[in-house]
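Researcher: Structure prediction, please.
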Amino acid sequence: AIGMAMIIITGDIDLSIGAILGCVSSFGCVIANLMLNKGVPTAVGVLAVVVFCLVGGTLLGFLNGLFVGKLKLPAFIVTLATQLIFRSVAQYSSRMLDPALKGATANTYRLANGGIRDAMYGFGNGQILKNSLALPITGIIFLLVGFLLIYVTTSTKYGKRLFAIGSNTKAAHMAGINVEWTRVSVFTLAGLLCGVGATLWICQQGAVDPATTGVNNEMFGIAATVLGGIAMSGGKGKLFGVIFGAMSYTLIDKIIAALNVDSLVNNSIKGLILLIAIVIQVLGPQLKNLVAAKKAK
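Model: Predicted structure follows.
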């Protein structure tokens, strides 16, 4: 959601974030099992998985950025294409790789039983403090990353460049901003965040289904961005709201599940909420201006 928001601020979009998550986490399991089979120390094996996920996500995001920023291709088409490519690679590899590397015989990836799996699973499902004050480690990481990038977007020249590009690309270019490489960088950063997400997914789940892992994450990222107040047209909004947007959308999902709503209707409700949020975002300023004009008269 945070990576998607930063891309949308520049006026672009990324439909491949879920596929990056699925692809990187799939091969992250392969790296973990390879380290286990080689008999490396647990700490080294875990570090290898983390580094692979972060670097892998960054490289895939960088690839998107090159097509969009340097070659000036439409982000919607580019990331739609790479979404299909990344997920296809992960799915095809699940059929071709040795089951010992996949950790499973079916078309999935799984951490094999051992020290690496125990260490990662314990971290991903661990908590700080106890009882009613228990805080999940993954949630704390989300907040730390969120507040770090809030600082970047509000208090650094780089963050101001993102808003300038989203507001008026030509004006940003005339102001001396390297629009091309800034766009490359924001897609690369989104890829890095997908790598962080892939690491946490492996730690929490211990398994990856390349056909389903990360599916619809693009929609969730866009929904959290819109609910957080980021303008889909780019150049407006605050990243701080995206944290609450992500939490709100997750809460909505939990409420729908608690009400035992038919799973076939679940996505319809969430889609309707997203549509309403966009309508409010677009029509809200128009209605405000209309009311102000009437008062002026």
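Model: The longest helix spans residues 263-296.
Researcher: Thanks, that helps.
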